[in-house]
Amino acid sequence: MIKLQNLTFIFLSVTLFGLLGFQTSCxxxxxxxxxxxxxxxxxxxxxxxxxxxxxxxxxxxxxxxxAHIRLVRTYYTEEMSPELGMMMAKYKGVGKLYxxxxxxxxxxxxxxxxxxxQAADLRNSVRKGKVSRTDFGTYYRKELSDAEKNLSDARKIxxxxxxxxxxxxxxxxxxxxxLEHLAESNSDLAxxxxxxxxx
Length: 199
Description:
The protein is mainly alpha-helical. The chain has helices at about 1-50, 55-75, 80-125, 135-160, 165-185, 185-195. The longest helix has about 50 residues, at about 1-50. The protein is rod-shaped.
């Protein structure tokens, strides 16, 4: 009888340790999956931070730069000083940077929103046990790859925008002043500047 009790005790102990080991292994696997999902969420959050620039402000600035450049080409008939020429070249560069932003922002923003939803759906499916580890790996790799590409695209159009702010402010003010000075003796330019200032 004692031997049977010992065997029963040994069997129950081995079973209990086996279950605890299995549970610990499952918890580690769950923890690994959740850490992977957290990594995905961080990529998406980094993209959102970059896209927090005010689109309408940048779009309005791009329009102003384009209008200023058109007006200078049309009405500035004097020979430009080297300083003003360099400013205009830099202003065009700022305009191109703003143009890349406005042209690409919509696609990157829409992809960002889609990735946010897909990441949330994947996390919910994992929590509810609706996705196998194999399927999770496939979905996760695809989502992470897409999130990294979108983050890279957002960096390309957003990261340099704050650094050109001082140039934009300085040059746009200078060009506006130059045009206003010319408009004192040119009624067509004066009207063009008025329409530019109108909301």
